[in-house]
User: What shape does this take?
Amino acid sequence: MEKLVEQAVEWIKKAEKPLVVTHVDADGIVCGALCTITMERLLKRFVLAWCDVFTKKIADNIAKYNPDLVWIADMGSADFELIEPLITKGIKVLVTDHHQQKSKWPEHESIINLNCNLYGIDGGTEACGAAVTYLIAKQFCDPATLSPMVVIAAIGDKQAHRGLIGLNRSIAKVGMDAGLIQQHTGLMLFGRNTLGLPSALAGLGIPQINTVEDAINFLGRIGLVARRQDGSWKTFSELSNEEAALLRREIVLAMYGAGLTQDQISHYFCEYYTLPYEEQYLKYADEFAYVLNACGNYDRVDVGIGVLLGNKNMYQAAMNLLKNYRQDLKNIFEIATAGGVKYMDHVAYFVLPEGVPPSFTGGVSTKLLTHPVSKGLPIVVCAKDSKAGLYKYSVRLLEKHGVTIQDIARELCVRVEGITGGGHKLAGGFQATIETPVEKVISAINEVLKEKALVA
Ligand SMILES: [Mn+2]
Assistant: This one.
């Protein structure tokens, strides 16, 4: 791999008309920042583009722009047929990615394919796209300052549930040694630094605390006064060590009381990471990733990159996007839980209302998966992407469903014409042409799940 990195560095140094293409999620946005830093250090003018899915249309647009080098990050493990016309045209193609490739690419002097899966690094758990992209960027910049970004990306891609491992971990360590990242273990709360404690606790998903009211009652019962002087709720990060320990102890007791086993309880704990030198919404790596996802959802990868590069105006812009994101998610959720979610025997599904950006399918499906409205079933969230002329499907599974996205992908491609996609083990996405009826795709997914359930 080192040799390829060296060669990639040579290509980038020599490029006169480079183009960077990255993905619109948190990981992709971090990749965009790492590519930007690389180009800036080399004083290169470059064009940055981003997309959700690497389609033929995107490949055609790249060919039309005709760069001498295209650097594709956090994606590009697409079909070789999409890449081939580019190299035929004389464009050098550099890929830094962690997604599973659908087909093996042939060796070619105009391709550098830095896909970690080809080098014994599992792209589902050990490396995010940014971890691979970092291997190049660190040749031009102090690795310690880049390390926190990779941690944010890995968390954005849900690779840190049991703590970072593999390449992600070794990169995180560089930042930890420099004091730029701190590692903690604790309750798997979201919003430790920004949500009032009852809201954060209600999101934990433990049996007795399903709502904010439940959480307020619980805090009262255990005698934890979590209010500030003005009466507003403290965040988790504002608790003293003693208060945090009390909370942790009482929650464990409550879970035992609800009949959970030690192993089940352990699922409510995780490793988490803080960035002590960042602003409020960016101090906790998971919340930073959330901000980046909010930017990506409104197609503002540029804003996300600006935040990562420390631009104050971009931070303000990102905060506005975050506010919209929360409001939109809330509205969509109300529709989902008020009868929007429909069911087949083996799957729950939700078609987003017209006008909602298709980028919302990922975030909404992740949130719905563990929501009671999904009844413990696998969830599919779908939206029409009129601009790209396709339907987008996000699928989320739980370990207990006994099926992986790869299982579904394999079968879907056979059963429904013109469908493509894939992803990680339990989270993935598919695209179908606008002519393919939504019912047909959902039925096909239902059938696959039914057959797999029969085998299991
Ligand atoms: Mn990724």
The longest strand covers residues 379-385.
